[in-house]
Amino acid sequence: MMHDRQADWTRLLRAANAGDARAYGLFLNAVTPVLRAVVRARGAGLPEADCEDVLQEVLLAIHLKRHTWREDEPAAPWCYAIARHKVVDAFRKRGRRIHLPVEDFAEILPAAPEADPTEQADIETFLSHLEPRAEQLVRAIGLEGKSIAEIGDAMDMSEGAVRVMLHRSLKKLAALRERLIEI
Amino acid sequence: MKTEDLLALLEKDELREPHAGRVLWHWLIPALILSALAMAGLLGVRFPMEKTLMTPDIAPKFYLPLLLGVIAMPVALKFARPLARARLSWVWIFPVIGLLLIGYAYLTTPESQRMMDFRGKTILPCLLSIPMFSAPILAAVLTSLRQGAVMAPERAGAAAGLAAGGLGTAIYALHCTEDSPLFYVTWYGAGIAITVIAGALLGRLLLRW
Lengths: 183, 209
Known about the structure:
The complex is a heterodimer. Chain A is mainly alpha-helical. Chain A has two domains: 1-114, Rna Polymerase Sigma Factor, Chain: A; 122-183, Winged helix-like DNA-binding domain superfamily/Winged helix DNA-binding domain (Arc Repressor Mutant, subunit A, Orthogonal Bundle), CATH 1.10.10.10. Chain A has helices spanning 2-17, 21-42, 48-64, 75-93, 103-107, 123-127, 132-142, 148-155, 159-181. The N and C termini of chain A lie far apart (40 Å). The mean pLDDT of chain A is 85. By secondary structure, chain B is mostly helical. Chain B has one domain (19-206). In chain B, 74% of the residues lie in helices and 0% in strands. Chain B contains nine helices and no strands. Chain B has helices at residues 3-12, 20-42, 49-54, 60-78, 93-108, 111-119, 123-146, 153-173, 181-206. The chains are: A mainly alpha, B mainly alpha. The A-B interface holds A 19, 21, 24-25, 28-29, 32, 36, 52, 55-56, 59-61, 63-70, 73, 77-78, 81-82, 85, 89, 113, 117, 119-121, 123-124, 127, 138, 141-143, 145, 147-148, 163-164, 166-167, 170, 178 and B 1-3, 5-20, 80-84, 148-149, 151, 208-209. Chain B: Keywords: Membrane, Transmembrane, Transmembrane helix. Chain B: This is DUF1109 domain-containing protein. Chain B: The chain crosses the membrane at residues 23-42, 87-107, 122-145, 157-175, 187-207. Chain B: It comes from Thioclava marina.
């Protein structure tokens, strides 16, 4: 089963790189429960919402660093490396030092979210730090599930401009987390 | 925002960041030009250049650091990718060549002159200039590494310092008039070591993400 995971993730990420947006969605949805399980196992004692925050940090990192994966490499070890780096970092920022061997990732079973879905993870607080139009755009896509084209029409922007603003907003969100959580 | 909402955002973002290598190409050439111009403007190139580039005893002071820089650069860049294996074990060959040069110079220099050659007249300018002319190049390499996903910030920074130190030293060698390996192996080596340490410290600060 673990070998399937390796092969599946690699296949999906390759397809995603070739421009298959659906494959990328599948990849993210496959990775998320595994990473959630690792974060939760490591963050024992940390409130569920905090674990979900850390998970979101990891997912943002995987997304924004996906150009550091090369197609001839297996995707799973790459994911684990990024996730491990981010998880250790996230717990360090929250005042904990953890030891996280990479084997933990390969052996763990996926986990579904447990938290009350109305629970506000703190990415919400970061959204308000974006400039108003960027915040509006991120909310429209993330919360209302609007497509790029719909937002282009609604905000009177070209699709290209929407894409650039979305990408920049995600980078900004990742950077804000770096700065604002630092205690 | 729930995690599934975040996933919806990530799925829709199709733009990818440029590779570290591309960023390096973008910055490396301007950095080299800046260092070279600074050296030429502040210190001046030593003429005739053939003396530095073609005399067998003297040429290593230019070509050896140049070779070090050229080999170390792609290795430093590998630190940008989590699964790339950056190998630095070849580095020891440079101190060995350096020691051979020192041994050769020691044997061929009259005893009375060895200490003079070793001390030269420009130890301090040398130790200051090498890190200074390496700095723009180090900045270029660190900038490109920030674009990657560095797992070992200090090692990556040290490798960047090695690459930058090699190239910066080659630039300085075009000015320097100290021609004994007793001088240049020792003090160039020290200058590069300073750059490597600076790279490691900066890496710790700048290559976090």
